[in-house]
Amino acid sequence: MSGMNPYPAWYDNLTGGADVDMTVNFLRNNRILYPAGDDPIFTITLAENSHVSAYMDSSTMSINGDINIRGGEIFYFQKYFYITSGSIVFDDPNTFNPKISLRATLRDYDSSSERVEIYLVMKDNTFNNISPTLESSPAKELSEIMEILGQSILPQSAYGSVSVGSVASIVTEGFDILSRLGIVTTASNPLSSLSASLKNLFGVDSFSLHSNIINNILSDTISSVSSSNIGTFSPMARFLNGTTLNVGKYLSQNLYLQFMVHLEASNAKNNYTIISDDLALDTELSLEWANDAFNVTFFTRPSYFSLYSIVDTFGFSISKTFNL
Question: Is residue 160 predicted with pLDDT exceeding 70?
Fold first, then answer.
């Protein structure tokens, strides 16, 4: 009854207690945002037909259930990892502290401009105790993965020295993280409102558009071009570096179509570019079929917009979740 002021007359005359026994069914377009706000660190899209049961009386409270994760994103190391699979399990009926297990992916480039798939894996974490592990394909040492991710926070040339460019990068990225945690209050992110409007306009089930263009322009303005490897790229590549678009749509109760576009500053010769010669365009199209036995995902990651590239990069994966 919080938020009702004043309370209705019938509420003031209530005596005794009440027992609650209910089941919450999650249908379409259910999301978990943490922390709540326009720029959460976690945005988790729940799968259809998941449910939890709750019981509460005057002395006890219990919550049980498993919720499958359809998709979403995690803001980590100043980049967005996109959730590919996972679950939220209420295994302790006496506490409201579910365990989260998920796998999220990020496509990035190493110092040699070679593409690297970085995976963020969480196993039985909770919202107040996040301790993910990092993997990559091709396989790399953790120090190499951290260096790739760290390039978005601290310029490589600043590892052994402190420059104006490194300070500018740390300030802009740190301010963004503090605002997401609610420590610093900022104006609403216009991209969040734009994403919500476009989601409703196109009638899709998920739509996210992210860009670090403001931070990139600020860092580029304050720092000298020579203070960071990113300074060797064209202005268009520097400003749009890290921009991502992710769209998802339920075709039916069991079929989920997802499309992703990612822009990254890169000088690799085999990159597909349409805006600038040093701005790589990565795309991925996937179709997930969920059934009682397992989940099947068909995907393609074309390097070029051609029938050959679509067929050449076609693949599929089969997954099954076991609760131990």
Answer: no
* Amino acid (1-letter code) at residue 13: N
Please report which confidence band the pLDDT of residue 161 belongs to, taking 50, 70 and 90 as the band edges.
very low
* Closest to 80 measured CA to CA, from 196, 212, 192: 212
Which is nearest to 45 in space by CA: 102, 112, 110? 102
Q: Locate the DSSP E strands across 223-293.
A: 244-250, 255-265, 279-290
DSSP secondary structure code for residue 135 in this structure: E
- Give the model confidence (pLDDT) of 105-159 as tens digits: 887 777 776 778 889 999 999 888 888 999 998 888 888 888 888 754 444 443 3
Angle 248-251-254 (CA atoms, 0-180°, nearest 5)? 100
Order the strands of the 255-265 sheet from edge to edge. Answer: 206-210, 244-250, 255-265, 279-290, 295-300, 315-319
100-110: burial string, b at 16+ Cβ within 10 Å, e else: bbbbbbbbbbb
Identify the residue with better confidence: 76 or 269. 76
DSSP annotation of 154 reads S
C-alpha distances out from residue 152 to 43, 174, 265, Å? 21, 12, 11
Class of residue 306 by CB neighbours under 10 A (exposed 0-12, middle 13-18, buried 19+): exposed
